[in-house]
Amino acid sequence: MNWLNDNVNLLALIGAAAIIIISVFVIGKYLRQMQNDKSGGELAKDNWDGIGEYKNPLPIGWALSFIGTIVWGLWYFLAGYPLSAYSQIGEYNEEVKSYNTKFESKFSNPDQATLMGMGEGVFLVQCAPCHGVTGDGMNGKAANLAKWGNEEAVISAILNGVKGSDYPLGEMPAGLLDKESATAVAAFMMQEVSSAKKTKNSALVETGRALWATCSACHGEDGKGMDGQSANISHYGDAQFVVNVLGMGKKGAIGNMPKFNDGRLTNVQKLAVGTYVHSLAK
Amino acid sequence: MFHWLERNPFFFAVGVFLVIAYAGIVTILPNFMESARPVVGTKPYTVLELAGRQTYIKDSCNACHSQLIRPFKSETDRYGMYSLSGEYAYDRPFLWGSKRTGPDLMRVGNYRTSDWHEYHMLNPKSVVPGSIMPAYKHMFSNNADIETAYAEAYTVKTVFNVPYDKPDMPTLGTYDESKKVVFAEAAAIVADMKSQEVKDAFKRGEIKEIVAIIAYLNSLK
After folding, report:
1. Domains of chain B: total
2. Of B217, B44, B191, which Cα lies nearest the Cα of B139?
3. How far is B117 from chain A, CA to nearest CA, in Å?
4. Count of A-B CB contacts under 8 Å
5. Residue A106: is it exposed, middle or buried by C-beta count within 10 angstroms (0-12/13-18/19+)?
């Protein structure tokens, strides 16, 4: 038994002894006071059913802190709380501001892999409800994105027309050219106008150039859509084309696509979606 | 100075109430009037939208879907701008909901379209693979209650001065006038839909609940 050698145990024992001794003295003092003391002093004027109250002057320190609390309370009631209260909207604004700053600096110059990752994330939330998780359009509920952005899609658009893009020059009518001419123009457009810059039918490019006037009447000689009068097909086959569709929405032959211009997507996110959607095209 | 209060329990209670209510008074009263007014651009529902709203209430959509976007970045990223109280000025009753089993629908009109709603009501899993929402096939066979919707619009116009028939606001007029507006609105939605059943019914002069609820959902922006 050498637990008395431990400092902490010793300290605890001394403390316990001190508490016992002090308690005995204090209890003894008050017991004597209860037996011997008589009440005295000046009575306050209030009297409740014969029970009176002595006047006890307030200690000065206590009185000062009481008055101080009242003064602080008035300030807090009238100015402190109403003028600098917590605001949920304020916190939201700060959170969004710091997030946006961080987003802009982190993604000011995103590389291809970053855009693909971001694009897939946004696609799954915003696009997948209609185009499907894989972008296949879920059995014709929306455009099959695998069949977009290539030469076949251009030929199909020339033959069948394009509905509901809401450009000032209106919808592109079906049957502007026959199948043979459409194939040639598509070859020219893919090779020379679009950003894909390649065609499967390179032999037809010169034939297509001669027929280009059919398209340039609306899309402009350079295919840039004459300052927003019609679709800018010089971007066909790259991410920017998708960004344009996101901004315009589409009331197409398959169904309606809402506009994504209410600020839900930043420009970088739109570009990311474009990159991802473009990667789905075969 | 407080002796008087001690002898008058009633006024003492009034004093206690004022002190405790103060926090509420300073936070609620200053912009209560302003925030309760309709936000600029908020319009009362058209009769067809009201019929859809009644269907929404009848089928308890609000049991799983809220209509209140909180000012959190995660919610505004997904649903759009957070809700303001003035946006509910013409909602009687408001449909905030409290249980967010499904996504918030406060601004669903911004990012879903008529044909999507049609697929979704017929078979939610066909567009949202993991969805636990039940199908609402009966909306394609039940007729929307246009008369009750007109009565509701007429009542709030008369009793609460809801600004129908004002410039830039939905027209109400008499029941016959209103019916023409309802059919014109419904025609635009039916044209966007695929269901032959609904199209045939519309030709017979019937407006199905699905048309009304799509009108209502498209109006939520």
Report:
1. 2
2. B217
3. 10
4. 64
5. exposed
Q: What is the pTM of this model?
A: 0.77
> Smallest Cβ distance to B127: which of A91, A92, A138?
A138
Identify any residues that bridge with A172 across adjacent strands, giving them in sequence order: A162
B26–A81 C-beta distance less than 8 A:
yes
Q: ipTM for the complex?
A: 0.76
| Token pair 């969805």 in the structure block, residue | B131
Q: Does B53 reside within a domain? A: yes
Domain residue limits at B8: 3-30
DSSP state of A142: S
User: How would you write A15-68 as a 3-class SS string?
Assistant: HHHHHHHHHHHHHHHHHHHHHHCCCCCCEEEEEECCEEEECCCCCHHHHHHHHH
Cα–Cα dist B120/B66, whole Å = 18
- Condensed to tens digits (0 to 9), the pLDDT of residues A228-273 reads 788 888 888 788 888 888 888 888 778 888 888 877 888 899 999 9
* Single-letter code of the amino acid located at B196: Q
A99 contact residues in B (CB cutoff 8 A): 73
Residues of chain A contacting residue B192, judged by C-beta atoms under 8 Å apart: 255-256
* Closest alpha carbon to A266 in A128, A98, A107: A107
Same-domain check for residues B25 and B115:
no
